[in-house]
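Supplementary Text 2. Reproducibility record for the structural model of the 103-residue chain.

All settings were left at their defaults, and a single model was retained for analysis rather than an ensemble. We include the record here because the model underlies the residue-level annotations in Supplementary Table 4.
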Amino acid sequence: MSSAKTIAFLAISLAIAVLGCVSQEGDQAKAACIALCRSALSNGQDLSSGPCLSNNITQGYVCDVAHSPRQDVDNLPQNQCPAYGPGKHFVEVDLGCNFIRVG
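Retained model, structure tokens:
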């Protein structure tokens, strides 16, 4: 195999490995966020304002409740996770703890 082909093969392999790790971490964060939301609901917590449930649901992920479709209240800073920013990802669930998206 030529050196250019070897480098291309290694780059593609590394990309696949990295994407697999991000996906696995996202799946873990999704499951943890849904579980936390269900626990909040069962404890009688009012989720109608779309609160942040955790600034660190798993390493690098916050857990946020939002309306689906999104409402203005979801964009208020007090209803968003303050830890979300550069280098952080988010998981959003709706008021019934149904998964919306991960980003």
